[in-house]
Amino acid sequence: MSKISDRLNRLSYSQTFVMSNKAREMKAAGIDVISLTLGEPDFDVPQKIKQAAFDAINENYSHYSPVPGFPELRQAISDKLKRDNHLNYKPTQICVSNGAKQSIINVLSAIINDGDEVILPAPYWVSYDEMVKLVGGTSVFIETSIDTEFKITAEQLEKTITPKTKALLYSSPCNPSGSFYTVEELEAIANVIAKYPEITIISDEIYEFINYEGKHVSIASFPQVYEQTAVINGMSKAYAMTGWRIGYSACPDWLAKACDKVQGQMTSGANTVAQRASITALEMDPSELKFMIDEFHKRRDIVFDLMKDIKGFKCNLPKSAFYFFPDISYFIGKNLNGTEIKDSDDFAMFLLENAKVACVGGVSFGSPECIRFSYAASEAELREAMKRMKDCLGQF
Ligand SMILES: Cc1ncc(COP(=O)(O)O)c(C=O)c1O
């Protein structure tokens, strides 16, 4: 009998961490590896935000905060949602967590019974399926492909809904595909979900600001689904605050209370210093973040140009977030210098060992024919990585 629970045994390790750890081990062994595995901005936290954290320490913000966060932070989030997304949420509808990751598991824990279905458009962020398993739910996938920019249609969604469907969970802008849903596409999805009041939309908007075309739209801004939507966002990506661990959910009252209840028994309020600093961050004008977005934009264009020359890569131009998700099905089923490539995880491992470039296979994102590269790395590293892959794959 396993000492580990069946529930945990059903979970996989995050493939992102598997590949990044392997790259780290190779580097430690003196091998020159370029790692494009992690979804983490390579910028420093803006000075103003750091100063707010120093001030919070000096002002002795060292005690437990209320479970769903300091009222001032929840007010700042409420103001931000109004300013940037035209959304009206009272501070009491907001729950601040240890990162958006916790916000998502709070919502899932609050609504999923054993056997309930959660619809995941594929590709999806690696943790979604595992979180659904952890709370006893069943993920139901909707397949997409590079030809539709990895986006689902309202028709596909409607066909997938069953009496057991409890939630639709997706990210827009999307990790890993870098696509985002347009206003029209979101409205069509909203119109379908509005017919099923028992379904909750969990709308992960953590990449909201990293968008090179068009303005971000939250599905919660469609009145027909406002009462059915949990908006998820956080400080990690836009403010380069991944390690500070602040995320939040904005929900209808009943769900906000439920998130508070879950979090109260699991972790209590999030880190107080990071909460205080997040108030300053959210009060900044979003234009102050533009330098990071401009830099990501520039790198995206460089990588896109170079990737076109890599044999066997079919790539679309991602419009948001900081990932490329090329289709590498050309290599699947091939034998590359003695390595059998059954899926994109094998291919990612082949690239790591032969081109010394680390990326993540698409299997755990629900797209076994694609691989994910983060371009949150320096321009020099990105150029060198593309050259290495071009040279390595050119022979096949
Ligand atoms: C789509 C998506 N949602 C949520 C998260 C988690 O963000 P946080 O650092 O706030 O937990 C990530 C992080 O990579 C992500 O890519």
TrEMBL record:
Q: Which UniProt keywords apply?
A: Aminotransferase, Pyridoxal phosphate, Transferase
Under Enzyme Commission nomenclature, its number is 2.6.1.-
| Aminotransferase class I/classII large domain residues | 32-388
Names of the cofactor(s): pyridoxal 5'-phosphate
Output the superkingdom of the source species.
Bacteria
- Among the record's GO biological process terms, what is one? amino acid metabolic process
Residue ranges annotated as coiled coil are none
- A single MF term (Gene Ontology): pyridoxal phosphate binding
Quote the Pfam families the UniProt record gives. Answer: Aminotran_1_2 (PF00155)
Q: Does the keyword Membrane apply?
A: no
Indicate the family of this protein.
Answer: Belongs to the class-I pyridoxal-phosphate-dependent aminotransferase family.
What is the protein's given name? Aminotransferase
Q: Which organism is it from?
A: Epilithonimonas mollis
